[in-house]
Each structure stands twice: as C-alpha cells, then as structure tokens.
Amino acid sequence: MPLPSPSFNATVFGSEVRLALPEATMKKALMAFLLMCCFKPLFAYGPDTVAFADRSLWPETMNSTAAFDRASRAEILVFAAALAEVAGQDAATLKAQLKIKQVDAASVARVRNQLTAQLLQNWRFAAADCASSEVFCDNISTADELLTAAEALEDKLPESYRNWHNKARVFHNSYAGELIRLAALFPKVSSEIDTFSALEHTGFELPDRHFVLTFDDGPSQPDGNTDTLLALLTKNNLHASFYMLGERLQARLKQAEPATPATLFHGQCAALHGWRHESHAKWEKWQSSIIDTRDLVKVTFPQSYQPWFRPPYGQRRADSGAFFSKHDLKVALWNIDSQDWNSRVNGEDAAQRIMTLMLLWRRGVILFHDIHPKALVAVPWLLDHTQETGVVWQDCREY
After folding, report:
1. 290 FRET partner, CA 20 to 30 A, in 21, 68, 167, 232?
2. What confidence tens digit (pLDDT) does each residue in 248-282 have?
C-alpha cells in the first residue's frame, strides 16, 4: 500500500491550502528554506540610488577594438565630469545627497585623485590609435585637460550621440555618487574603494582589456545556481574565482559525495569569503573565520584552491596586513560591482552596467554572486557583446 505524499499547509493570497509533494521535492524545498533562514538573505539593499546603463542607446556596433576604444573614450569623458561635480561638493552637501552621517574629506580627495589618475591612464590606452579628427579624440595628458574636454563634450557632440549622452550623464552621476559615498565613509567603514596594504588587490593592476570573473557567497545547494553557472563557464572555457562561505560549503558537503564538488569546480578557482557573511572589520572571530574556511576549502578543492580572501562587504581591519602576510593570503577586492546582489537590479541591468564600467575602467575584477541567478543572464550577454573587442577574460589561475 503506497505511503501518502509528504504535505504541509501554506497560506497563499490569504487562503490556507494543503500542498502534497514528492518526498525528494520536499527534501529540496526544506533544505532551501533552511539555507535562506540560516545564511545571509538572498537579496541585500544597497544605496538608495543605483546606476543603471542602457547600451542600446550607443549609436554604433561594438564589433572591433577601435569601436571599443571609441566607446571607452566617451564613457571616460562623461564620468570625468561627473566625478568632478560629485567629489567637489562640500561635506554638508555630500552628507545630504548621499544620506550618510560622516564625510572623511581626506579620503574623498585621495580617492578622487586615484580615480582621475586611472582615467588619464585609460585615456592613453583608448586614444592611442585614434585620429585627431575622430570623435572623442581630444589631445589629453593632464587632469585639467581631461576635465576641460569633459565639460566641453556636450557642446560639440554629434546629434547621433545625444540620446546616449543624456542617459550616460545620469548613469555616471549616480555611479560617481556610489564611489564617493564609499570614499566618504572610508576608512571608518572599509570597502573596495581603497586599499590598506600591497597585499590587497582591486583589479586595476591587470593589463588593459583584461577582466576576471568572480562569484561570492556560494556554493548553492546541489543542482542550484552555482552548478548551472559552473556548466556555463566550462562550456565557454572560462576560469573564474569563487569566494566561498565556509558554512555554505559545509552544508553543501553534507548533501553530496565528497569528490563531487572538486569535480564540479575543476578548472575554476576556489577561494575564501569567511565562515559567515559577516563584516570581518568588527567580528572578534574574524581570524578563525578565515583560517577555518581556508582549511575546509583546501581539503575540499586540493587542485582548485587559491590563497585569496575576499572580505564580506569589502570590510576588513586596517591592521590586518600582518595576519594575511603570516598566513600567505592576499585580499581580493574588486573594481566593477555588478550590483547583482541588489533586489532592484535584474540580470540584463547587471550586464549593461558591467559593460559600461568595462569601457570606463578598461581592466578589472568583476563582482558577481553565484547564489543569485542574475549572472546566468549577464555572463552570456557580456560574452556576446565583447567577442570582437579585444577583451581578454583572464584565467583566474594566472591572476
């Protein structure tokens, strides 16, 4: 005589219903529920304003290195003006506009100078082969010349670029606000916006047009987003870094044969995100969080382990350099945030934002989260839109 199917009561649109499920489905649903309850919420809320891009407004096809460089110069000019406008405001205005309680003026000035220096270097790469008569091809070698060209852009912009420019100004003002907000809070609230030591890497140290894909907060439960993403990467011969939470990995290992995770991650890089998704700047157990996660990742992925730690939220202690040096670890930050962790952002939003920031920064570490499905939309979109642009997807094992 067959046993009844497992069932439970649920409230749907105000009415209580009884659901009957196969036993295997019931177990998966229960495990998913436990993962959501015990770990970081699936979606976090970031700043009130998030920068959204619309690449469809760019009037040219991105089908060559020259086309990439032309679009890159355009984004650099618009962002340079936005950065000067946002970072040039006084502390009281920044507090009000960015909705923060403190502003470290020295940090804002330092970050502004660092970003401006990066923009000048990027301009040299982007303008190396352009003719003086070409659009977005000013002769720029100093910060003052960059700002002058940025401020004069609108007046000499060809009509075909107007719609793009209107949207780009909104994007870059919002994006500059994201960065200056982080700078204003640093170092009291640490983040990816600046470094504490040479052991910390942001992505700006990569060669021009080189980008690394990285994924945080996993792994998901078996047959979840992480597994689907791994299959996508393998199919496209991509090698990415996965910054794993110890407690998620431990939970995953209880649901699979010991050798299965190592097989799934073959060719990828397994690194550390701490035991729990908790700020490692204030947590008294931050050191054991890293060591315990390292030990678990190393034994689980003997061929894929990489000695990198990515601090949750980018938050770590200013004096942690000695600890990382002692344990032969490096700190992995990022310079291109997909915002896929943000509930306001969908997969295509993330892809178009990343493409715009790739044009702006021309190199970098891209932050995704493999516990969310958005990378499964964004990564194929990016591969499709960069295949003829000279972009190199850096092998994580060589980073």
Report:
1. 232
2. 999 999 987 766 888 999 999 999 999 999 999 99
Q: Which of 185, 218, 236 is the last residue of a domain?
A: 185
Same domain for 79 and 165? yes
Residue range of the domain that includes 89: 55-185
Quick one: pLDDT at residue 5? 38
**If DSSP states are collapsed to H, E and C, what string results for the chain?**
CCCCCCEEEEEECCEEEEEECCHHHHHHHHHHHHHHHHCCCCCECCCCCCCCCCHHHCCCCCCCHHHHHHHHHHHHHHHHHHHHHHHCCCHHHHHHHHCCCCCCHHHHHHHHHHHHHHHHHHHHHHHCCCCCCCCCCCCCCCHHHHHHHHHHCHHHCCHHHHHHHHHHHHHHHHHHHHHHHHHHHCCCCCCCCCCCCCCEECCCCCCCCEEEEEEECCCCCCCCHHHHHHHHHHHCCCCCEEEECHHHHHHHHCCCCCCHHHHHCCCCEEEECCCCCCCECCCCCHHHHHHHHHHHHHHHCCCCEEEEECCHHHCECCCCHHHHHHCCCEEECCCEECCCCECCCCHHHHHHHHHHHHHHHCCEEEEEECCCCCHHHHHHHHHHHHCCCCCEECCHHHC
Render pLDDT for 9-28 as a digit per residue (tens, 0 to 9): 333 323 333 334 444 444 44
For residues 177 and 209, state if they share a domain: no
